[in-house]
Design a protein that fits this description.
The complex is a heterodimer of chains A (340) and B (288). Chain A is an all-alpha fold and 340 residues long. Helices cover 73% and strands 3% of the residues of chain A. Chain A is globular. Classes of the chains: A mainly alpha (340), B mainly alpha (288).
Chain lengths: 340, 288
């Protein structure tokens, strides 16, 4: 008896995945073709793609609608500065260090906020982020409430010339974003992915079929915290300056990230990438309008949520049944025995 | 005596937090909606009062006569026009839409009024106080604030359990589908709940604005205070919410007394401790 097998890829997703790989290679050579401003913009885009993908994993798959991920962005940023300034660790090594600390911090945080359900979970995570912000502003070794800059000696240690430093930081950003996306893809294709899909569709049914809901959610929460803290470290390595208000900003690291994910398409891996492109296109077009630009962003996000809740990528999928990332499980029947 | 004073001030501030919380808890109870923009509506009410007092030249407390109905009308229209379309099993749409509203209100106020901090001028009442004992006095304004909180919560309690509207609120809260079958117009009931919530917000906003400076960015912190008061007090219990507000206010006052930098931190820690030790809150609603 031959079993039914499961196949992820079809021809179209193989082609689009190859195109994506080619794009990543082209982006790896961006220092050759993009100017200084272009590199900085791309670096920022990579950070938002990663943040939005991680939030999408939390909210779109695990049902953990957090509005407090700025806790981990800020923690990661502050850990980069603490490890580099106070412990003398190279900033490049401090990024994974920040990720590790983020993951460790996520465990007790989860123990508290997992007691809250739904909307209350959301605001509970925000309170935790506020606590982190207030604690950070009490650390006088890192500038207290007004923040601090990365000392020149530490910055120079990354690479000798300013140009080379910018290249190195750019490559780290690209590598981190690609690694986070690849890990999410692998996670969703694993048994955890099936469990997550089951939880997303019906938590009670998933639990009654033997999925350990709390454990799966905890794993996802810790994973997202680790990735988010590494991105936080990266973002403040790009900026070379940190302050509690910037590091734990609810608008920068949560509101924008949620808008990006919803506009692009929540619950799909492609959504955050599409959403980030739209977000930065809007920002470049309206950058000189100040507060009006944020106001417009809010209006667009509300309109998308009401009129097209699956986002831009959801519209594309509905019309073309197209996926870039091979995630959809297709059953392949066993070959029929030859008729006698 | 110094500590008695600190705790007394904390209790009085707690009344304000309970008022932030009452509006939040009301709409969550009736339609399971958490309004992320709740704090920004408090700030919006403060700015409305500012415009009203400056154009009409009236006292801030008198401006309530205009601001409260205005905010209630905004709440009704907002619920019917926008928020009713977000309600359902999925918690993301209401969350995202109210998050969007929060960003819109903050940046709209920033465009109109700049980031400068403002204050409502209430005249002599601002500094008036009563001496209870040597070294122990309470301000007339903080007392008024607390009395208003008790009145608002008592009023809501009476409305919930003594009136037809309250019965409609409780019915939709228990089971919206059955309530609709019994002839209630849910869209209208929800809109009335939001109108009532924003009317309470208007009172809280004006009382906040005569006591402290405000600017377009302070809304989210008010939302968090209200939320903490709800959770500390226990879901679904209005008097518990008042107690939750008082716990929060006292914790902040004690924190501030120890070190000015610890004021907010102490409040959040009180919340986290309650969450860790007694996640259902101090006074959860007793079913029966």
């Amino acid at each position: 008896m031959s079993a039914v097998s499961v196949r992820f890829t079809d021809r179209r997703s193989a082609i689009s995945l190859a195109a994506l790989a080619a794009a990543v290679v082209a982006l790896a050579f961006a220092p050759l073709w993009a100017g200084r401003d272009g590199l900085r913009l791309l670096g920022e885009i990579f950070a938002y793609v990663a943040l939005a993908s991680l939030w999408n994993l939390l909210a779109g798959y695990a049902g953990l609608v957090s509005v407090g991920q700025q806790a981990f962005v800020g923690l990661g940023g502050y850990m980069l500065f603490a490890l580099a300034i106070l412990a003398g660790i190279s900033p490049l090594w401090a990024i994974p260090g920040a990720g590790l600390i983020g993951a460790l911090a996520a465990v007790p945080v989860a123990a508290l906020v997992f007691r809250l359900r739904g909307h209350y979970f959301a605001i509970g995570t925000w309170v935790v982020a506020e606590v982190f912000r207030l604690l950070a502003s009490q650390v006088s070794a890192l500038g207290g409430g007004s923040g601090t800059s990365l000392p020149a000696a530490i910055v120079v240690a990354i690479a000798d010339t300013r140009t080379m430093r910018e290249f190195v930081i750019y490559w780290i950003a690209l590598a981190l974003a690609v690694a986070i996306l690849a890990l999410i893809l692998l996670l969703l294709r694993s048994r955890y992915g099936l469990a997550l899909t089951a939880i997303r569709d019906n938590e009670l049914a998933a639990a009654s079929n033997g999925v350990d809901v709390v454990r799966v959610k905890l794993v996802i929460y810790v994973f997202a915290a680790c990735g988010t803290a590494m991105i936080g470290a990266l973002v403040f390595l790009q900026k070379l300056r940190i302050s509690p208000d910037a590091a734990f900003s609810v608008n920068d690291w949560t509101a924008f990230v949620i808008f990006i994910t919803v506009i692009g398409g929540i619950g799909r891996l492609e959504g955050p990438i599409v959403g980030t492109i739209v977000f930065f296109a809007l920002r470049q077009a309206l950058a000189d309008r100040g507060a009006l630009y944020l106001l417009m962003l809010g209006v667009v996000a509300i309109a998308v949520m009401l009129k097209a809740p699956k986002g831009i990528w959801g519209l594309i999928v509905d019309r073309l049944d197209w996926q870039v990332f091979p995630l959809q499980r297709r059953l392949v029947p066993p070959p029929r025995p030859e008729p006698n | 005596m110094e500590w008695t004073n600190t705790i007394l001030q904390g209790v009085l501030t707690g009344g304000l937090y309970a008022m932030f919380a009452a509006g939040l808890s009301l709409i969550f109870g009736v339609m399971r909606l958490v309004n992320i923009a709740h704090g920004d509506f408090i700030v919006l009410a403060a700015y409305l009062a500012l415009v009203v007092t400056e154009t009409l030249g009236i006292d801030p407390l008198v401006s309530l006569v205009i601001v409260v109905p205005l905010m209630a009308a905004i709440g009704y229209a907002l619920q019917r026009g926008l928020l009713n379309h977000t309600l359902g099993d999925d918690l993301l749409p209401p969350l995202l839409v109210t998050f969007g509203l929060s960003v819109i209100i903050q940046n709209g106020l920033l465009e109109l009024f700049t980031a400068d901090s403002r204050r409502l001028q209430a005249g002599a009442i601002e500094v008036a106080s009563w001496q209870l004992a040597p070294g122990l006095s309470i301000g007339v304004l903080p007392f008024l604030q607390f009395a208003a909180a008790v009145a608002v919560i008592g009023g809501l309690q009476a409305l919930f359990y003594r009136t037809a509207l309250g019965r409609a609120f409780r019915a939709t809260s228990d089971d919206p589908a059955v309530a609709q079958l019994m002839g209630l117009d849910n869209a209208h009931v929800f809109a009335l709940a939001m109108a009532l919530s924003l009317a309470v917000v208007a009172i809280a906003g004006v009382l906040l604005a005569v006591r402290a400076n405000f600017d377009p960015a302070i809304g989210p912190a008010r939302l968090i205070f209200g939320f903490e008061a709800v959770i500390i007090g226990g879901l679904g219990n209005l008097w518990g919410t008042l107690a939750g507000g008082i716990v929060l206010g006292v914790a902040q006052a004690i924190g501030a007394k120890l070190d000015p930098g610890w004021q907010l931190l102490a409040g959040h820690l009180a919340f986290l401790i309650v969450l860790g030790v007694r996640p259902e809150g101090l006074f959860p609603r007793i079913r029966g």
